């Protein structure tokens, strides 16, 4: 190797090192770029899929009719849901259903909404019924008055008791419900003697609600639907007896307020039937309390003299209307009472009812279980 060649070789070596560094930089930057793009695409896909597993529009409760033909497979069903605008992506729904081993869906016509999640849609398609997970539930216990129901509504929603009671008592509300439920809400609720027209017409139950702030109209309609569902099976019975829904709810409300146990309702119903047949006043304390408009642990003799159409001590027959919201057990007891000759009953201090067909025995029961007097 000559002296003249050494500088050239040195320059060539330095050039190769520089080129290698450049190549490494290019490769590194390219790898980072591809990795970044890959991560970006993965993130986009992740959020897209995640979004596809949520409700299309959680605030849109408008119903969309979707027809699922007999024999439809998961691919076709997913496509129909996407075309109807119920889900964002048919492929996501399809693979999600497959991943969860869900494929046995029922044909039919469904009223679905964009606010339903894939899980809710899958449950609906499996059962043939529209299923949605409620935002909250509200329980209306049996035996409450309209005002007491208003208190429950106030505790569970942004609607005040006053707003609820005011809406329920509006003539416009009553007329609207008469139009929607002509077989349930009739002109009888407009009797001038009735204190609260829709008393007893809002069915006690646990109701699901699918939005955080339902309107007072939605709440009332939900409860009215509960009444319609529970009363409609008895319409033929009422017609055969020449009775009305108003009569049924009024009678049942007395049982609801008097009974301390489910088994007693049939016996108490028999007492009231026997008294009505014998042209005797019903003489039930809850009607006096309703007439007084206040809660009392004990009804006094002077309370029994109140001049009010709801006072069944002074007036024969049923009161003008229900005094509370009766539950299914009380409604059923009216239509299927016990077969007894009982004319009297009273509840002891432990809430147990004691029945008899003799006034003398009734007085003995009173002394024994209430006043504490001995024979």
From TrEMBL:
Entry EC no(s): 4.2.2.29
Transmembrane segments: 26-49
Membrane topology classification: Single-pass membrane protein
Residues the record marks as site: Important for catalytic activity: 258
Keywords: Cell membrane, Cell wall biogenesis/degradation, Lyase, Membrane, Transmembrane, Transmembrane helix
Catalytic activity as recorded in UniProt: a peptidoglycan chain = a peptidoglycan chain with N-acetyl-1,6-anhydromuramyl-[peptide] at the reducing end + a peptidoglycan chain with N-acetylglucosamine at the non-reducing end
Subcellular location as annotated: Cell membrane
Family: Belongs to the transglycosylase MltG family.
Role of this protein: Functions as a peptidoglycan terminase that cleaves nascent peptidoglycan strands endolytically to terminate their elongation.
Classification via NCBIfam families: endolytic transglycosylase MltG
Name recorded for this polypeptide: Endolytic murein transglycosylase
